[in-house]
Every structure is written in structure tokens, then in C-alpha cells.
Amino acid sequence: MKSSCNTVIFFHRCLRKRSAVSFLGVLVICLLFMNLYIEDGYVLEGDKQLIRETATHQLNPERYAPTYKDLSNFSGSINISYRYLAGTPLPRKRYLTIGLSSVKRKKGNYLLETIKSIFEQSSYEELKEITVVVQLADFDSAWCEGMVQDISQKFAHHIIAGRLIVIHVPEEYYPILDGLKRNYNDPEDRVKFRSKQNVDYAFLLNFCANLSDYYVMLEDDVRCSKNFLTTVKKVITSREGSYWVTLEFSKLGYIGKLYHSHDLPRLAHFLLMFYQEMPCDWLLIHFRGLLAQKEVIRFKPSLFQHMGYYSSYKGAENKLKDDDFEEESFDIPDNPPANLHTNMNVFENYEASKAYSSIDEYFWGKPPSTGDFYGIVFEKPIKISKIKVVTGTEDRQNDILRHGALEVGEKTVGSKIGRKCTTYLRLGEFKNGNFEMTDVEHKVLFDISCMRILVTKSQKEWLIIRSISIWTSQTSSQ
Question: Which ranges does the record mark as transmembrane (predicted)?
Fold first, then answer.
């Protein structure tokens, strides 16, 4: 471990004249590896102290508040004082915290409409599971006081119920924001704006770390889809057993990015460490990659839409819209946990699991033959109300299932890994590459343990199974 520390010092001395970007990459990787060793207890006490001193020295402590000099402790909270402007956290953890950071705009103000959309688009049951935290991040105290009054008047019952909290961090806790590096040749005022925004988000993340199981970041000019929380819960459930750092429910900026709350302290430290290097949405990509989620996991249709016309930076026009957004409630499937398998020849990494995912991805196999199948074995027997299977895509309309049937099975045999059903009931045939059936629970009298797509005739075309959607009516007690 000492040799690793010497390597860090060596890189610092030899590369200090190179670009800040290359130095940043080396530093991030070294620090994260240091953190992993420290947290797992593999480093002697003397080495830990050397790491702390080295890491702090390299990051120029004069540019950072004293409260977060110990950069080796990525998982600890940042010790700053928050001003409660309205509401206080409840002792009971909620399912989801929704974070918003807002500053005074030269043109337009959409914060009240954003808060209104969050609450109006949520059912009474959903409201019990969310906490909304608004950070007023402007240093203009008169603006903050005015916004608190407006928020308190319009959303008093949500504040009393503990669903809405408004906070502020005093300017004294912020690092230096003037005279920063002008990466990407950005003008000085823009560098200051985006650097402060990184710190704003870091302080907000730090505050929200223990309020709920999950956290989603919105901007202060966003419209929500109906019952978005129910959709988020279904997506999270469908990803059980799989590793993820960030789930995305919008393709725009820092809107609709979902995290495990236990990752928030690390993300807060990360934004603070590199607050002056690049915009926050770029830093988020690096954070996700460093935690080993290499690909974007984005849900469609989007649940959040940018509605502002003027940016918070200088009041510039910002007409960005998410064309995948759907405001009205849509019927998202349940897709209960299951083991997926196929005997078809899979193309590259378009494996079976991708057809069953709630994310926009699909299974792709080479030309199937008679008797080939795509199988689903549920972890528990279930009652199914609706089934929908779509094959082919808009750009590959020929890669559909030409001749196939959908079948369900009752009882499984074999070990946990190799379980399968021995008998199946055929529900129907595919038509034009698709299958859809409702009221399944009235047509199938047993609890369903397996489901399979069976190829009934060989075809020359490849096969894409774009989506498999299953809606359940109740879970069997077996």
C-alpha cells in the first residue's frame, strides 16, 4: 500500500505541468482505490494517515472548506450546518426523496409549478412515501425569504405533513468560486455558475442521504407524469438482483436521475472534489462509470419533462424538451422476478434478460428453428391478468416472430437453477409478430410458474423480442 502512495506522489510531481483533465483521471482512480482499501480494513493505520495527507495535499486545501478535507472517507457525511426555512425531516424513512435546488432567475420562475406538479401527479398513497426537499441556493436573502413565504402559503399542508422541507446553506460553507480554472474555454461567469451548481447539488445530496431508501434529482423547472412514483417502484422491483448506480427517467441534464440513498455521500464528496472541473451532468457520467456501471440504464417513456423557457444562467433561452415524455398515466407492467433462458443462438450481448427488462433494450437471436423457445420461470407461482409480447423494432421490422405460440406452465421440476415446467397450456398464436391477451386469470385456472415463447416454424429472418410485459392480479400464497 505504501508503494501505491509513492506512486500517487510520483504522478503529482511528474504530471503537474500536464493538462488538468489527465491529472483528474489519475487522481480519481487512485483515490477511489484508496477508499476501497481503507473501507475494507486492508490498510495499516500509518498508511491511512499517509493517504489522507497525500490526497489532501494534491487537492489544494485552500480551495476547499475545512469540513471536507478528509477525502479518503468518501462514505461519510459532510459536516455543515443547514438552515431550515420550512418543515423538518420526519423520523420515519420514506421510500423516495425528491431533491430540487433553485436559484434566483433573471427571467421566469418555475419552482412553484414544479412543486405543484410533484404533489398533484401523486396519489394519496404515493404521497405517504415521498419527501420533497427544496434547497434555496441563492445568496440573496430577500429572494429566499420571498420564496419561502410563497412556498409556505401554497403548500402549507404538505409542510405540516412532513412531505416538504425547504433548506438553505450559508455562503460561508462554499469554497472559492472566483478565479477558477477556465476549462473548455468557458467564460469566467459561466465557470462560476456551473461550479457553484455542483456545490449546491453536493450540499443537497448530503442533506438527503438518510431520509429515504432512494433519491431522485429534479431541476426546478420540471413537469411530472401521473403516478410517477408507482412507475419508479415497478422499475426498481424489476431490477432486483442486478447491479446499478443510476437509473434515468429522463434524457435531459440532471433531471430524473435516481440513486440508492447509500450512494449519496460518495456522490456529494465527488461533486465537491471536482466542482470546478466540468458541469454536473458530465461529472455524473464519470461517477457512474467509476462505480462500474458502464452503460446508461434509461427508462422509457420519460417520467419528467423540462418546462422552463429561460435558463437559470443569465436568463438565456432553453427550449430543450424530452420527446420521450408522457404526462398521462400509462400501464407499466409488473414483470415479477424470474429466471430467463433460451436455446436460440444469441447475437453478441443481446441476451434473454433484455427482453424482460423495463429499460429500452431487447433480445436478438439468429434465425430460429422449429422447437426453439424463450423461457421464463417465475421465482414464485403467480396469477397473471395480462400478457403482451412485441417482436421486431421500428428499424428492423423484418426481425419478427413469423410463426410462434405463447404457452404457460403450472408445476416446476429440478433444482433452483435448472427449474422448468414439464407440461404447458397453449394460450394462443402470434399475429404479425405480436401477442396480447387480457383476463388471463379467468382463462387459466392454475397459478402460473412458467411461460414460454415457442417457435412453431423455422424462419430465415433473425428474431428480435423487443419486450415481454406481464401484469399480475395477485401473488399466489404457495
Answer: 20-38
